[in-house]
């Protein structure tokens, strides 16, 4: 069902087909006469139909000078050809005196390597196009073509224009892909014919020599595929190169093939882009159809104009596509910057994520959570694929249109993912977006039934049938997807930049806030340190002078005065305690941990010794350690402070006759260990369980329980947090309290 003539050789081997010398068939089509002339313009070879057109026998003509047939002016026109390069044609009107009348022809002459060829096509006065008509038609066609910017519309317009001029039953525009396979991209046809639009054809349908000829000549015309070819005589002459000949005959396979399709007349116009055959305008007619030479020329001209307009339309359509991708990118940017949920921003709507690179499926991987969209491999396959593809990534991107060839495991899911585009957003966070394209075979609407069997001819030869050509084509595109376009890769990269940009700018904001917090913390800490340091000196003065007054001047003072002074002393002591606590806390704000392996048993023993020494009482201090404590990495001095504080409080806030404290760690496998200091003291009301850790928060008056500054637990909490740990308390009023904490 190919659009080409010169196709389908009667051979099982596709490659043989490429070797058929279709440019030297030794015959022409019967709708004109061909004369081959030597450099002296003597007739060397003629088609065996001169009697019919010229009223002269072949033998009469062979060996004669051209002047035997044409007048001097016409001979001079042919002679000009001698100086021209091979293939360049010249057309002029010729009147030949046949036996009984004058007959008008178009004389089309061109040079080959060895000779000059003159082809004569009869001129039909009735269908003649005047120059002005020709110009008007061409002018209108050009104007319309220029008005259309969309490639698909443009190709449809070209097909329509050719159909209007030729009045063929069906006009198609056929486009080649990178492998040379083609598809019908535009079609104008008679309503009752079934459409071919969208069908694909293998590269082998138009073999290399035929392609070459299409590229060389802008137009190929076969008015009647059933017409008998006319031999060139004498046959023993060396084969004549008919590459540029308009009348060149076609091979039998081509005839049979088109007969089977119900096509009798064929017109093929080349579409050239960057000196390459981009596609063809292919016209079919069910009955023989002769197109006057001017109309053929008109079609050829339209083909040339369409070819030259094609570049703009292609770049327009690429541009359109790029614009579409750009607008999708900015949509993404907006949703990502506004969304709280990153996944939602990417996959709602799903089609947008797919459209961004024209994929059929996608997977979004955030940490280890994978979300699938469209047609994709399954989750396990995607997970394994990411592991592999991550090793292939270059500049955060990996793209392949033949994944199974690089990653054999992908053969299992080639239908979904013969093509992969992987975008790495963050390796550390394991953020990836993957896009998939199916094997190209899945996306193609194959022309003809691929399951048709091979046709064995009576002579034993086998005709290449759709299945064979499909199989051949399948081989070339097996395990591959449509290629990823550079603008699609750019689109993916732009998405990454947007995501990273937004995430980074959010991180930047956080960093800025952190920096400010850090600065204000530092300022606060240095303020507290300076203030408490500087406060201590005048306070010492107040204390000292008050003590001096009390000791040396107590004679002068009355009782009230002494009492006042004693209060000043107590208050200044108290104030010093408070200042010391504040000083300690602000120091902790800047402290660097000196972590070292610390045997907690030793540490606790030391704490207990100091504690005992500080208590002048002789009574027994019951400190229980149910099992040996571990050795941990920590800041020894600071952890010492934790235990001193907690043990101190445990005895301080205890009214029982048999006070005890238990120190240990919970029996869990979890890390970090949970240490505790438990007592049988007064307990803490539930609503204070959290507030007791605040600075200067005391639950009791100064006098009761010999309470401190209310800073002890705030300092303990700070030290625990410096170790990335947590502290909390559990307590029952009147029964006791347990302080729990972790250290990392
Ligand atoms: P202080 O230096 O006054 O003891 P802390 O910050 O150490 O201050 O403790 C704050 C308050 O928490 C104390 O005033 C006390 O009321 C309560 N508290 C602390 N430890 C215990 C405990 N083991 N049992 C009962 N209450 C306690």
Strand content: 15-25%
Query: N-to-C terminal Cα separation, in Å?
Result: 77 Å
Low-confidence segments, ≥5 residues, pLDDT <50?
A: 1-20, 449-467
Broad shape = rod-shaped
Q: What does the secondary structure layout of this molecule look like, with pairings?
A:
Layout: H1 14-17, E1 27-28, E2 33-37, E3 43-47, H2 50-54, H3 58-61, H4 72-80, E4 89-97, E5 102-111, E6 116-122, H5 131-147, H6 151-166, E7 170-176, E8 182-189, E9 199-201, H7 208-216, E10 219-222, E11 230-233, H8 252-261, E12 265-273, E13 276-285, H9 293-338, H10 342-347, H11 350-355, E14 361-366, E15 369-374, H12 379-390, E16 397-400, H13 403-406, H14 414-417, E17 419-426, E18 431-437, H15 440-443, E19 445-446, E20 455-456, E21 462-463, H16 466-477, H17 486-552, H18 559-590, E22 595-599, H19 600-614, E23 622-624, E24 631-635, H20 636-652, E25 660-665, E26 674-679, H21 712-722, E27 727-732, E28 736-742
Parallel strand pairs: 9-19, 23-25
Antiparallel strand pairs: 1-11, 2-3, 2-6, 3-11, 4-5, 5-6, 7-8, 7-13, 8-9, 10-12, 12-13, 14-15, 14-18, 16-17, 17-18, 20-21, 22-24, 25-26, 26-28, 27-28
Helix pairs in contact: 5-9, 6-9, 9-17, 17-18, 18-21, 19-20, 20-21
What is this structure, in a nutshell?
The chain is of the alpha+beta class. Strand 17 and strand 18 form a beta hairpin.
């Amino acid at each position: 069902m190919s659009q080409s003539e010169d196709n389908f050789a009667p051979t099982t081997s596709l490659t043989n087909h490429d070797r058929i010398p279709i440019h030297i068939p030794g015959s022409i089509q019967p709708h004109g006469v061909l004369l081959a002339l030597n450099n002296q313009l003597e007739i060397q070879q003629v088609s065996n139909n001169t009697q019919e057109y010229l009223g002269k026998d072949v033998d009469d003509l062979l060996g004669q000078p051209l002047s035997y047939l044409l007048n001097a002016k016409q001979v001079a026109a042919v002679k000009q050809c001698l100086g021209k390069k091979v293939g360049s044609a010249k057309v002029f009107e010729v009147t030949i005196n046949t036996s009984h009348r004058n007959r008008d022809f178009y004389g089309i002459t061109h040079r080959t390597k060895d000779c000059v060829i003159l082809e004569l096509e009869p001129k039909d006065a009735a269908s003649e196009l005047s120059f002005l008509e020709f110009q008007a038609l061409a002018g209108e066609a050009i104007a319309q073509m220029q008005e259309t910017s969309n490639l698909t519309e443009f190709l449809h317009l070209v097909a329509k224009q050719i159909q209007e001029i030729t009045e063929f039953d069906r006009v198609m525009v056929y486009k080649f892909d990178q492998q040379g396979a083609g598809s019908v991209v535009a079609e104008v046809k008679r309503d009752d014919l079934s459409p071919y639009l969208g069908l694909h054809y293998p590269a082998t349908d138009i073999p290399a020599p035929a392609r070459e000829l299409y590229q060389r000549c802008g137009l190929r015309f076969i008015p009647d595929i059933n017409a008998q070819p006319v031999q060139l005589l004498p046959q023993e002459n060396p084969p004549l190169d008919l590459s540029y000949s308009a009348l060149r005959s076609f091979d039998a396979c081509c005839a049979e093939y088109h007969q089977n399709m119900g096509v009798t007349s064929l017109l093929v116009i080349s579409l050239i882009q960057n000196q390459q055959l981009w596609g063809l305008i292919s016209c079919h007619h069910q009955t023989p159809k002769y197109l006057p030479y001017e109309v053929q020329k008109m079609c050829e001209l339209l083909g040339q104009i369409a070819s030259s307009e094609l570049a703009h339309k292609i770049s327009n359509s690429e541009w359109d596509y790029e614009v579409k991708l750009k607008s999708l990118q900015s949509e993404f940017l907006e949703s990502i910057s506004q969304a709280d949920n990153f996944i939602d921003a990417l996959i709602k709507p799903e089609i947008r994520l797919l459209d961004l690179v024209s994929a059929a499926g996608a997977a979004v991987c955030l940490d280890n959570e994978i979300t699938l969209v469209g047609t994709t491999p399954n989750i396990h396959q995607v997970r394994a694929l990411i592991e592999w593809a991550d090793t292939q990534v270059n500049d955060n991107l990996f793209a392949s249109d033949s994944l199974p060839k690089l990653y054999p495991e992908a053969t299992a899911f080639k239908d979904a993912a013969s093509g992969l585009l992987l975008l790495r957003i963050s390796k550390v966070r394991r953020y990836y977006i993957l896009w998939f394209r199916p094997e190209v075979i899945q996306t193609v609407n194959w022309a003809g039934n691929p399951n048709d069997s091979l046709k064995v001819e009576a002579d034993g030869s086998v005709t290449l049938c759709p299945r064979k050509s499909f199989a051949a084509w399948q081989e070339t595109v097996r395990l591959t997807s449509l290629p990823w376009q550079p603008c699609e890769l750019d689109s993916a990269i732009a998405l990454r930049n947007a995501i990273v940009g937004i995430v980074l700018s959010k991180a930047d904001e956080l960093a800025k806030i952190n920096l400010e917090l850090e600065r204000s913390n530092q300022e606060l800490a240095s303020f507290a340190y300076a203030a408490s340091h500087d406060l201590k000196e005048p306070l010492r003065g107040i204390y000292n002078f008050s003590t001096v007054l009390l000791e040396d001047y107590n004679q002068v003072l009355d009782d009230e005065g002494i009492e006042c002074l004693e209060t000043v002393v107590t208050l200044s002591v108290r104030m010093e305690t408070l200042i010391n606590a504040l000083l300690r806390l602000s120091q902790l704000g800047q402290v660097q941990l000196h972590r070292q392996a610390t045997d907690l048993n030793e540490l606790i023993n030391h704490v207990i010794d100091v504690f005992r020494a500080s208590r002048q009482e002789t009574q027994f201090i019951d400190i229980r350690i149910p099992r040996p404590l571990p050795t941990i990495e920590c800041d020894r001095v600071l952890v010492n402070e934790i235990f001193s504080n907690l043990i101190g409080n445990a005895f301080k806030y205890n009214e029982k006759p048999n006070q005890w404290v238990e120190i240990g760690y919970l029996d869990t496998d979890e890390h970090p260990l949970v240490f505790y200091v438990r007592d049988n003291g007064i307990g803490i009301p539930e609503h204070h369980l959290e507030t007791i850790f605040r600075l200067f928060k005391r639950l009791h008056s100064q006098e009761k329980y010999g309470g401190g500054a209310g800073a002890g637990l705030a300092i303990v909490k700070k030290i625990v947090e410096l170790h990335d740990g947590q502290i909390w308390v559990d307590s029952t009023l009147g029964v006791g309290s347990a302080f729990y904490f972790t250290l990392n």
